[in-house]
Amino acid sequence: RQRSFCRFLCPVGGFLSLYSMSSTMAVRPRSSAVCQSCRDKSCIAGSAQGWGCPWLIHPGRLERNNACGLCLECFKTCSRGNMSVFLRPPFSERRLEEWDEAFKAFLMLALAVAYSAVYQGPWGWLKAAANVAEVTEWRFFGLYAAGLWVFALAIVPGLYVGASWLGRALAGASADVSLRAAALAGASSLVPLGLLAWIAFSVPLVLANGSYVLTVASDPFGWGWNLFGSADVGWSPLVPHWGQWLQAGLILFGQAAGLKAGWNETRGLYGTDHQAVSGYAPTAALVTVTTVVLLALYAG
Question: What is the CA radius of gyration of the chain?
């Protein structure tokens, strides 16, 4: 009812919502004045042309991507033809509005680090502990799962919230800037960094299995077709020696975009740039440490 699972419980919806902030596309009204003068509000209530917004939001007031499912139902129902898709630069949205969004940013970055260590790190014992389906060492898997939960739900959030607390103290603005506001501003750094970390994590998978695309394109159903003459192409990894360089470049780009986002959000909180530098410095240092850890995992 009321899409309670999709909106509040679904983990896939959670990370899609978070990383949609970085999207180069956005559904928005062409003119807010047209939406304000509209009386039928068919984008919400629905009409003969389509359903009211399935995500239970007001499309005419959209300013952020986080709650929009990009279903385009409002395109069909809007009686004024006022809804459109706009292109914009990546990472255009920076503001996190609530603690739940900040914790999604903490969680997704923590899991990117953890899974990179498990799947691409050199520690065989860690791989064995995580691979309970084949190794069946339930005791070690329990320790691994408990460690992962503590790392993702306590250590990483604690470090970043602690960095925001320290920044407020260094800036001398503890009474003027709440810990919540400082933490949300700092967590905006983790949206670009987390997204690029997951892309970097996927690079070896794509390079190792990319040649299968040619085979499947010619015989998509496994029925013996050879539409493009590539059904019999043998498996061969694609430029595997580029993997570490691609991963390092993606991580450094994520760090740069994250630092820019966090700085812009933090600067808006404090009265002077000097205070903003002091307030953001601990978080920027922690972002840099996280970047170094990821670089060590991918290209060390």
Answer: 23
d(CA 96, CA 108): 15
Mean pLDDT, rounded, of the chain? 91
Sequence-distant (≥ 6) Cβ neighbours of residue 55 within 8 angstroms: 3, 6, 7, 67, 68, 69, 71
Quickly list H helices, the chain: 4, 11-19, 32-37, 42-45, 73-77, 99-120, 124-130, 132-135, 138-150, 156-171, 179-187, 190-209, 212-218, 243-267, 273-299
Question: pLDDT, tens digit, for every residue of 182-216?
Answer: 999 999 999 999 999 999 999 998 998 888 888 89
pLDDT in tens, 260-290: 999 999 999 988 889 999 999 999 999 999 9
Q: 32-35: which pairs have CB atoms within 8 A and are 24 or more residues apart? A: 32/60, 32/61, 34/80, 34/82, 35/60, 35/61, 35/80, 35/82
Q: With 0-12 CB in 10 A as exposed, 13-18 as middle and 19+ as buried, what is 83? A: buried
Choose among 54, 30, 34: nearest CA to 44: 54
**Helix, strand or coil, per DSSP, at residue 47:** strand
Integer Cα distance of 13 and 9 in angstroms: 8
* Residues pairing with 87 in the sheet: 25
How many other C-beta atoms lie within 10 A of the C-beta of residue 256?
14
Show the tokens assigned to 118.
């498990």
pLDDT at 299 over 70: yes
100-124 tens-digit pLDDT: 999 999 999 999 999 999 988 889 9
Is residue 181 predicted with pLDDT exceeding 90?
A: yes
pTM to 2 decimal places? 0.89
* Dihedral over alpha carbons 149, 179, 186, 195 (to 10 degrees): 30
Q: Which amino acid is at 179?
A: L
Is 35 strand, coil or helix?
Answer: helix
* Cβ proximity of 202 and 176 under 8 Å: no
